[in-house]
From TrEMBL, chain A:
Family designation: Belongs to the UPF0336 family.
CDD domains: R_hydratase_like (cd03441)
Classification via HAMAP family: UPF0336
Protein name: UPF0336 protein GSY69_00455
Domain FAS1-like dehydratase: 9-137
Organism: Brevibacterium rongguiense
Classification via Pfam families: FAS1_DH_region
Amino acid sequence: MAVNTELQGTSYALPEPYEVSREAIAAFARATQSHDAAHTDPQAARALGYADVVAPPTFAVIPAQRAEARYISLPEAGIDFSRVVHGSEQFSYTRPIVAGDVLSAVCHVDGLREAGGHAMITTRTEIADAHAAPVVTVTSTIVVRGGDDD
Amino acid sequence: MTESAAPRDMPAQFAPVAAQLQVGAQVVTADVEFSRADLIRYAGASGDFNTIHWNERFAKEVGLDGVIAHGMLTMGAVIAPIVEWAGAPGAVLDYRTRFTAPVLVPDASSGSPEQPTAFLTVIAKVGAIDEDAKTVRLDIEVADGEAKVLGRTQAKVRVK
């Protein structure tokens, strides 16, 4: 099944906002070997001027990938996930994520092109806080490898 | 500096100082190691349970040489020593990479599954300095032995 290029320009929002907890930040920091005290100690975070513990720079991938999954898992998107390879990733922060944030995420399918039997898909997920103020933009490129039988 | 500045506008007390940096200077070197247990830990923390990151048979069936690390685990672990250098997690304003080669994480042949079986080296150099904006661009190289596993990896970091 071929990737559906007609979905370029479509957008997919998380149905419910992602609520950032201290526990989620601590677990993500431990998993990414991020030992800065500001990830786990509210006092250390406040000493640096943050409202609460601060997420590591790639933490935004959690709400971003949930929003991306709204698109990637659509049957009409035509994406065989077993053939997906992650091509690139970028985080552009307006402000860091802290515990207590309630984040919305909208994934925009910005680029969708086929070349040599493969498809390259660029998504841009805009993450904002409860006041609709921008927090971080996550840009991701995936490659859907063509099969021998295509 | 005003007291009302948002956290992103506050350089950390121990932040590097732009005027003391030079383009080309190597500012961070670090070793990053992964075990099979680390992949499970990242799967749980991130919610990415893609089978190629924990099941050898499935990984081989889809054409890989074995279980590989999440690209986002590598990206996440590589920035940790940069955060340490920057003095605060919020000092990383922009972080980007390309995934150029998979990082194989074999099962340890004996003993604890917590034993690292993948060994990466991280080197970050100053690529550009913006003294007006008080930011530096770090160019980061990440290698698994001879193979570069990340490409065009850059972090824009707030400095003083």
